[in-house]
Amino acid sequence: LSGSVTMAADREERRFAEVSRDSVKLMAESAGLELGDEVAALLAEDVCYRLREAAQSSAQFMRHAKRKKLTVDDFNKALRWSNVEAICGYGAQDAMLFRSVKEGELFFVEDRDINLIELALATNIPKGCAETMVRGMFTLLSSVVAPCSVPAAVQSLSDDLLKYYQQITRAILGEDPHLMKVALQDLQSNSKIAALLPYFVYVISGVKSVSHDLEQLNRLLHMVKSLVQNPYLYLGSYVRSLVSSVMYCILEPLAASINPLNDHWTLRDYAALLLSHIFWTHGDLVSGLYRQILLSLQKVLSDPVRPLCSHYGAVVGLHALGWKAVERVLFPHLPAYWANLQAVLDDYSVSNAQVKADGHKVYGAILVAVERLLKMKALSLPQPAEGCSSSQPGCLAGPMGYRVSSPGLSPPPEPLAEAGLGIASHLQAGGAGCQWEEWSPVPLPAMYSELYSFFGDSLAVRFSTEQSFGGFSPCTPSHFRETRKEPLGHVSNPDTTRKMPQLTANLNISPRQDGSPRTDPPPPSLAATGSVRSLARSSMQRSRASSSRSGQRSIGLSRDVFPKARFTSPHSGPPTFSFVIGGRQMGRRCQGRRPFQTIFVPTPPPPVVLPRVYTHKLPVIGRVCKPLRRWTRSHYSLHLPL
Amino acid sequence: MEHDQFKFIFKMAAVQGGMVDAKDELDIKSEPPSDGFGNSNANDGRLLSSSPGAGTGGTATGNNKPAPGPPEEQQTLLAVLQFLKKSKLAESAEILRREAGLPEDALDPKGTDASGSGPGLAAGSGQVDGVDASSLLSRVTVSSSAAAQAPKKAGEDQPDVSVVLSAYSQQGDPSLYDAYYSGLKRFIESVLDCHRAELSQLFYPLFVHMYLELVYNNNESVAKAFFEKFSGDQECYYEQDLRILSSLTKKEHMKGNETLLDFRTSKFVLRISRDSYQLLKRHLQERQNNQIWNIIQEHLYIDIFDGMPRSKSQIDAMSGSLAGEARREANKAKVFYGLLKEPEIELPLDDEDEEAENEEGKPKKKKPKKDSMGSKSKKQDPNAPLQTRIPLPELKDSDKLDKIMYMKESTKRIRLGSDNLPSICFYTFLNAYQGLTAVDVTDDSSLIAGGFADSTVRVWSVTPKKLRKVKSAADLNLIDKESDDVLERIMDEKTASELKILYGHSGPVYGISFSPDRNYLLSSSEDGTIRLWSLQTFTCLVGYKGHNYPVWDTQFSPYGYYFVSGGHDRVARLWATDHYQPLRIFAGHLADITCTRFHPNSNYVATGSSDRTIRLWDVLNGNCVRIFTGHKGPIHALAFSPNGKFLASGATDGRVLLWDIGHGLMVGELKGHTDTIYSLRFSRDGEILASGSMDNTVRLWDAMKAFDDLETDDFTAATGHIHLQDNSQELLLGTYMTKSTPVLHLHFTRRNLLLAAGAYNP
């Protein structure tokens, strides 16, 4: 039955669906039988009849369930009572995608593979349905409510609800913050507002008309949050609309962002957070949501015409959706995108100042995203090695990837075409515009080296894998050789070998801009600093910080993401930098990999009293924390506590 | 002499056939034959003599042609032979065999099979022997009507099927069917207007039977052409059946088709005036149109009445059911529709003064405002059954308390009317995800229960009083049984909650009903069982098994103890809570029983069916005492008026029909709903009828007006014709939309507040 059913086009009467003789033959063939024409025709006719009969009796199950919609369940019941095996696997509430193949007039229901392992191991269990409950309400109070015989859509709301709706919207969009708080609270807990949901969703879709007003946008987003958190509401397909509104806030070059004083970055961060919240809690309601979101983010990211703030939104959006999204979308696009970003960052003209600042934002966001990606990927690595035969580290989630391992993350098997239905423009309709290209995960080492080529040391600095280091290091010695070589090459030939803006170099070796490069102290001169212990601790801090709210983090993104460190070293000796990757130290004086146990502790140069101002000017991406005194005291350290 | 002997044998066979059926029944359902069964067997016997099938069989054998004639007769002989052998009448068997010229091994099962009884029989596979024998036997005896009334479903029903189908085997030239039918059509179109409407009733049954004959005889293409040509002429309300019919083009498919069986197992009943009938008869005899005449003789029952021919609208009002109209004599039996006398209960005098003014509190129950509408006066209602006609449970103390509560409440009852509509409170089931299948509310409106597609039954308290379980046995031992509040003490406060979920069914719960004393809850399910739940412990007490197919509805008697259920197996069953087997089986519907209701006096049960008829059954003897036809779709809602005189029914056709039980007539038609009506309820005093439908509306109708306007004189006429005025719009008092909630249940509280319930359908 799940096979192909073709309509007999040549029949003059089309009262019933027909299973053609050819279909029967095909099905028989697939079962290893050869059928004659005559037999097939007879069978086909019989099958048609039986189908009609089953449909007929399934209708009565529908009637008695007091429904108007015939479900697969009804049909299965009919089959069961006529001693036929039930059809499994079609019980989902969503509409099934019935596709056709043009050649051959073949119609079939799309049936994709589901990764059961992933489902079974999922730690984030999809939100169940809200509890069934009974609520009483007066429809008619005798001689109080005048019954209207043909009420319009809005009038079908009772007066109370209407009033409630007005009050709530007024409170939320109004001036009084206290009132707003109360209203949001109520919206979050009121059990009787199901009927109003479409109206609220409509209000929220008004984000487009208030894109000049950050405050209003913020309020609307809060409204979304309240609705999403209301346990009594079944959002159903409204999720789509909500997501669309949220995506608007994330991705659009809002009118409010024209004024650099407006902190639309925070709004975007909040919206991204909200997006991930909606997705994790309600993503199961709408099919193909994940893929659509990714597609629209990808589209924005790959569109160079879009302003940087849109790109920023796309990056934080991806980041909020989890490292897999980053790996899937951001990482493959990075090389292409990088060129543009670099152009922006390299332009030091005054007119470009604002854009450049935005560029730094994007840079920071990307850095944060890829760091998490690397980290999560590294963490997830040991697992496949343990026993799973999978060669794709990405498809299995590591122990830390608690969210990542949810079934939602791998794009649910969903029809692309369906996405086109009634979706606002901010949800990318599948297939339209950019293609959802095939994607294969890049192994960690390759990824690391590629990312390193972009970010250089500022990446490495953040990349801490203290627990898992032992896990993957033996597998990838070559990778380490590579990464080790990289900085060395750089040392020897800083300006030519790297395509990348020498971000690390630039910022660390600031005087170069002012003076001749020749006189520069050698770039990343390597010295091991501090104790391993402190290192471990700080990296832990960092990881905590980086996994904390992205919003918070980006608040700290100051304009001087890549400051040209203007400090001129007061001391004559070459400043030493420590460069640490996960417990491994590299230094000029220690040309090679050192295990933890044999830490090279360099002779500290004369203590440099670093003005505090400068500590802020250090390449800080992310939050600025109090610098650890011990470190600043001893060296310039890239390894800032973040 | 030969002849007589055969007659005797046939009688024997008939009885045997009946018994075989009964035995089958026993095997399948393990029930003893009850009153209902005895009755239907008796019917078989009675029908035997008049059955045309038997008649033809008789003449065939009466001719006593010893030569093995057409396979039909040969099989008859074989059947008789087999019966004789079975009964150890070896000598007679030998004589018969010799005289009939049958071979020695005639009874070899293979031989029987090969003799071409058709695929219908051959398909019997496993139990070839038994099936063949019984089918052959019954073929001889029963060709129509009551025999197949017993519940039969695929698998077990093969004997019957072949019987039914075999009646199609004799027939004329298939190519002439077209001409026959058009000839009749021309004739009917040419008759006088007053007769045309009546004779037009013939079209549909003739059409169906002729089509089926064509299909049965493998004239597929002719049948198709025949269908194409004439299906457009049929009344629109047969559309559904015609669709099923059109999907049937192969003889092999006929045997499993229930609709077809329904059609074949019962004679289609037509009501025609004598004049029209004479006209038809004369025409057919003149034309020598035996084909049609045969069909009329065999498959149609023409109920001839004297008097004026009926008009088209009169006919349309009554037709539409699967098997035509009800025969007039089917509605002749006396029905005691009056109410039982309420037991005398002393009202405590210390209550409010209005109660003090008369001591028994009896007339207070119904205020003496209107005698006709359900007044339970002290003297026995002449139409009421004897108080002891069926044994009713004794009133317990708690019941008496409840009665007193009821009386108190009813004094505060609002007097409804066209100018004073009830308030409506709607209970919406949120987050039911289309899973709500049944709702019931207790009489005192304190609890509401829902049956769900996920097999659960959920009970909510709609008052602040939470639902509590009784304590465990160990804890109960610790209770001071002498204390005044022992009933309070037995409850476990820890279990108090607003909602209790009852698990036990393994299929969607299609019907639920609270017992009047609120101690029990019944639920019927797709899994074929009815379960009785205790609302004290919230556990399942009994699972009643009997229906082997989905049970669509169940309801408690208004006095408790008894309950009725009906389902896909086409029978309704009457149960008592303390018997695990049914007390009565009401068989007669031709399709699923979709809803069941007790008469307020508990002596009768009404059932609605997807054969589009409503039947009223006598609980005492299991007889069908009323058949109401007129709906054009499966009936999904029934309601008795509080005075027991009237019945309201709602169906998928969106119409509410009102019936006078005493006279057995349709007395009103309420049009307005646009979708299936799932609930009907009269207000406590019967002034207002509320209907709830799939179209998300509650409508209120002026029942008082509908019944008062009746010209009861019309009923006395023997013809039983009715003139319905189309006054739906006048009777409609209000239409109230829900947001998006089909109305599954309606309930009037004791003070006449209307409660409605349904699941919000986003």
TrEMBL record, chain A:
The keyword Protease does not apply. One of its GO terms (biological process) is RNA polymerase II preinitiation complex assembly. GO terms for cellular component: SAGA complex; SLIK (SAGA-like) complex; transcription factor TFIID complex. Residues 474-559 are annotated as: Disordered. It is found in: Nucleus. SUPFAM superfamilies: ARM repeat, Histone-fold. It holds the Pfam family TAF. Residues 503-513 have a biased composition (Polar residues). Residues 533-559 have a biased composition (Low complexity). GO terms for molecular function: protein heterodimerization activity; RNA polymerase II general transcription initiation factor activity; transcription coactivator activity. It comes from the Eukaryota. Residues 479-488 have a biased composition (Basic and acidic residues). Residues 17-80 form the TATA box binding protein associated factor (TAF) histone-like fold domain. Keywords: Methylation, Nucleus, Phosphoprotein, Transcription, Transcription regulation. CDD domains: HFD_TAF6L (cd22932), TAF6C (cd08050). Functions as a component of the PCAF complex. The PCAF complex is capable of efficiently acetylating histones in a nucleosomal context. The PCAF complex could be considered as the human version of the yeast SAGA complex. With TAF5L, acts as an epigenetic regulator essential for somatic reprogramming. Regulates target genes through H3K9ac deposition and MYC recruitment which trigger MYC regulatory network to orchestrate gene expression programs to control embryonic stem cell state. Functions with MYC to activate target gene expression through RNA polymerase II pause release. The PCAF complex is composed of a number of TBP-associated factors (TAFS), such as TAF5, TAF5L, TAF6, TAF6L, TAF9, TAF10 and TAF12, PCAF, and also PCAF-associated factors (PAFs), such as TADA2L/ADA2, TADA3L/ADA3 and SPT3. Component of the STAGA transcription coactivator-HAT complex, at least composed of SUPT3H, GCN5L2, TAF5L, TAF6L, SUPT7L, TADA3L, TAD1L, TAF10, TAF12, TRRAP and TAF9. Belongs to the TAF6 family. This is TAF6-like RNA polymerase II p300/CBP-associated factor-associated factor 65 kDa subunit 6L. The gene is TAF6L.
Automatic annotation (TrEMBL), chain B:
Residues 172-300 form the TFIID subunit TAF5 NTD2 domain. One of its GO terms (cellular component) is transcription factor TFIID complex. GO terms for molecular function: RNA polymerase II general transcription initiation factor activity. It holds the Pfam family WD40. Residues 37-52 have a biased composition (Polar residues). Transmembrane segments: none annotated. CDD domains: TAF5_NTD2 (cd08044), WD40 (cd00200). Keywords: Nucleus, Repeat, Transcription, Transcription regulation, WD repeat. Residues 100-111, 370-381 have a biased composition (Basic and acidic residues). It comes from the Eukaryota. GO terms for biological process: transcription initiation at RNA polymerase II promoter. Residues 26-78, 100-127, 347-392 are annotated as: Disordered. Residues 347-358 have a biased composition (Acidic residues). It is found in: Nucleus. WD repeats lie at residues 429-470, 502-537, 544-575, 586-627, 628-661, 670-702. InterPro entries: LisH (IPR006594), TFIID_NTD2 (IPR007582), TFIID_NTD2_sf (IPR037264), WD40/YVTN_repeat-like_dom_sf (IPR015943), WD40_PAC1 (IPR020472), WD40_repeat_CS (IPR019775), WD40_repeat_dom_sf (IPR036322), WD40_rpt (IPR001680). Belongs to the WD repeat TAF5 family. This is TAF5 RNA polymerase II, TATA box binding protein (TBP)-associated factor.
